[in-house]
Structure formats: C-alpha cells, structure tokens
Design goal:
By secondary structure, the chain is mainly α. It is built from one helix and two strands, in the order ββα. Strands 1-2 form a two-stranded antiparallel sheet. Strand 1 and strand 2 (14-17) form a beta hairpin.
Length: 80
C-alpha cells in the first residue's frame, strides 16, 4: 500500500495527498509504475531533508563550541 494518493486536478496537474493511502490492487499496471516512481522520488526528498537537518545541526554545534571557546578566552561566563 502506498502512503499517498495522486489526485488529478482539472487543469491537468497532479497533487500528492499524503493523508490518503492507495492500495496496490486499485491501480492499473501503468498507474503502478507512476506510483512507484513518485514513491522513489518522495523517499529521495526525505533523505535530502534528513541530510540537510543533520548538517544544520552539526553547524549549530560547531558555532556553539566556537562561541564557548571565545567566551572562555575572554573570561566571560556562558550559561548552558
């Protein structure tokens, strides 16, 4: 079962609705290929987002350590 549904709009576009699920047996073979492709792209986007969050967290930690070291050198107390 896919954890999304592709909804066709009147203007020819498609919307990915993640609040709905789509059972495999309700799809034609052509639709199944389309859903598999969209599912793979969604997973790729999730990996990219996780990587970006991890890098941002790493940079925040680095910035905090730099500020802490500068404060230590200047004899300034920083509250955690």
């Amino acid at each position: 079962m896919f954890n999304f549904r592709l909804i066709n709009t009147q203007d020819g576009n498609q919307i990915i609705d993640t609040t709905l699920k789509t059972p495999y047996n309700s799809l034609t073979p052509v639709e199944m290929l389309e859903y598999i492709e969209v599912d793979e792209r969604l997973e790729y986007m999730k990996r990219i987002e996780r990587r970006q969050r991890k890098e941002a967290q790493k940079h925040r930690g680095l910035l905090h350590r730099i500020i802490k070291n500068v404060a230590c050198i200047c004899n300034i107390a920083i509250l955690e």
